[in-house]
Amino acid sequence: MTDLAHGAPVRKRRRPAGFSVASYAVVGLFLVWVLVPILVVTVNSFKRPDAIFTSTPHVTFSPTLANYHKVFANSQFMQFLLNSTIVAAGSTALSLAIGVPGAYALARLPVPGREWWARLILFTRMVPAVALVVPIFVIFEKASLLGTYWALIAAHTTFNLPIVIWMMRSFFEDLPIELEEAALVDGCGQFGAFRRIALPLSSPGVAATAVLCLLFSWNEFLFALVLSGQKTETVPIGVSSFIGTVSVDWGGSSAAAVIALIPIFFLGLGAQRFLVRGLTFGAVKG
Amino acid sequence: MAATRPGVRPGRASQRRLAILMVVPALWFVGALILGPLGYSAVLSLYKWSLTDINQAKPFAGLANYRKLIDDPQLMHALQNTVVYVVASVTVELVIGFLVALALFQMTKGRRLANSLVLLPMIVAPVITALLWRYIFDPQFGLVSQVLSSLGHQGGIDFLGGAHLALPSLIIVDIWQWTPFVVLVLHAGMLSIPEERIEAAKVDGAGHIRVAWSIIRPGVIPQVLLVLLFRTMDTYRIFDTVFVLTRGGPGGATETIGLYTYQTGFSFFDMGYAMALSMFILITVLIISSGYIHLLRRREVFR
Q1: Which of B226, B187, B235 is nearest to B88 (CA)?
Q2: Is it the case that residue B33 has pLDDT exceeding 60?
Q3: Mutate which of A146, A222, A280, A285 to test chain B, going by most B C-beta atoms within 10 A?
Q4: Are A221 and B108 an interchain contact pair (Cβ–Cβ within 8 Å)?
Q5: What's the average model confidence in pLDDT over A102-130?
Q6: Tens digits of per-residue pLDDT, A28-82?
Q7: pLDDT of A11
Q8: Nearest C-alpha of chain A: how many angstroms from B291?
């Protein structure tokens, strides 16, 4: 261990104990494992085909933006991006519009049997999408909704709405109730107490919940696979079609994957504190 | 406990009306788009019908679809694969996740940065995760094969196309994507352990490993249960990565229960049986999760 310090200026700080060094090593190794696949696809997206399909890979290569030009010139992929945006925004807006008032009522108002309702909504998180997609397909087929944006927006709301209700209910319950009581005394009315006091105070919670909904909807695959038509296919469907084909365009599909990842990374890091809370239905406040 | 939670001036009739106005849209939606379809599925699983003649008469078949379910060798096979997938992924994720969370917990610097980087895999869409690993596992130009060949191993290995390697490869993909979730949940649990308890143990002369085993490990049991609940449920119904990477192949080696249900409905068009399979998945998931939820409620993680 003393070899490390040889020739270097003497450091005053206490050398970390062996256990602490091991901790950094474990976390470092894990980060390498986590990041390598993401880095590989990023690097591939800047490579020409001859630099990817080589049996003797080189560390250096001349980067190219050709793959990105190709993806952006591909009107079909632009349509996927547009569809994903419409569906994610639509489902998020719908889930918030009906979920936030519902969550407030379940947190604060005398809803008959409100614990029971809350539990019922927790139960819906347990329902596997695979079990839901078969009947929803048949119902939407009969209602001639297949291939419309509404079909996907409604289907994505089946998993976003329960998240909104459970997340927002826990945010509303965290607010000090005295503020709303004071608003009532001032003659605000119960709905005013919600709209003027509780809602503005929990706006960070609303924002975090919205980000989670956007994220889940943007990434969703099974409903999109079954319920979308040619005109409403989302990015995951587009990416999956790259993988299935025999002669895969690695550069192009890598660039497409990177483009699809960028908004997700921004959203995910923005909602970092609430991500685990959302995924565990508020059980981990993090 | 439920009734004593605070409400703003309960009991007034106008309040009750407002409460119902606010909660009904949400409950209506849950009923119309989740519970309704599930009920529809339960009823139609009693009929024999296929998608090719969706508007024709569907003969009532009683429990025929469920009898088929009991001795369907393909379902048994899919269930076997699913159980292997669930047990292997969840076990590895839990062990590695605990160790990494513990290491993160010991770090004094760079913890925030590490936290941000760790979470990346779980926000990557499963389909994109599949794409990343499709390239890493490629027998000719993939990273693994190229590293192996530079070490002198001749000939690429077909990870996703090999009968014995395909399922383990999918498990590795799951481990990559979801160990971060375990890390973050367990790390949050460790942060909630009162610091005095750890300090007291150290004062009493307990070493790092002793503290980890005797204080931290029992301290995060609620979070472990939580992780088990969500990971078991989500691996049991795994679909996206399997569908994209192997479609259940080669030769059914990676057919899972979720994929089998999908194919029954949308490749073989046997909707009656697909609905019976949906019911089977739903009921088994509910049985598994209610066990965990019971344990979690006892520890007051869920109210």
Answers
A1: B235
A2: yes
A3: A280
A4: no
A5: 87
A6: 999 999 999 999 999 988 888 777 766 666 666 778 888 898 888 887 888 999 9
A7: 44
A8: 12
- pLDDT tens-digit map of A213-242: 999 999 999 999 999 988 899 999 988 887
The residue whose two tokens read 């001749």 is: B154
Alpha-carbon span A194 to B23, nearest angstrom: 13
Cβ <8 Å between A215 and B6:
no
Confirm if A80 and A233 have CB atoms less than 8 A apart.
yes
Select from A27, A108, A136 the Cβ nearest to the Cβ of B7: A108
Q: What pTM, to 2 d.p., does this model score?
A: 0.88
Contact B223 A284 (CB under 8 A): yes
Smallest CA–CA separation between A2 and chain B, in Å?
A: 22
Chain A CB contacts of B124 under 8 Å are 38, 219, 261, 264
Nearest to B106 among A19, A31, A268 (CB): A19
- Residue A1: pLDDT band by 50, 70, 90 thresholds? very low
Phi-psi bin for A147: left (phi > 0), alpha (psi -120 to 50), beta?
left
Sequence-ordered alpha helix ranges (H) in B62-142: 64-70, 73-106, 111-118, 120-123, 126-136
Which alpha helices (H) appear in chain A, and where do they start and end?
A: 2-5, 18-45, 49-52, 66-73, 75-108, 114-126, 129-142, 149-174, 177-185, 190-192, 199-201, 203-219, 222-227, 235-244, 250-270, 272-279
Provide the H-helix boundaries in A143-176: 149-174
> Helices A114-126 and B271-298 sit at what angle, rounded to 10 degrees?
120
What is the Cα–Cα distance from B179 to B2, expressed in whole angstroms? 35
The candidate with the shortest Cα–Cα distance to A109, out of B1, B26, B2, B8, is B8
B135 Cβ under 8 Å from any chain A Cβ: yes
pLDDT at residue number A7? 43
Of the candidates B16, B261, B285, which has its C-beta nearest A110's C-beta? B16
Q: State the pLDDT at residue A113.
A: 85
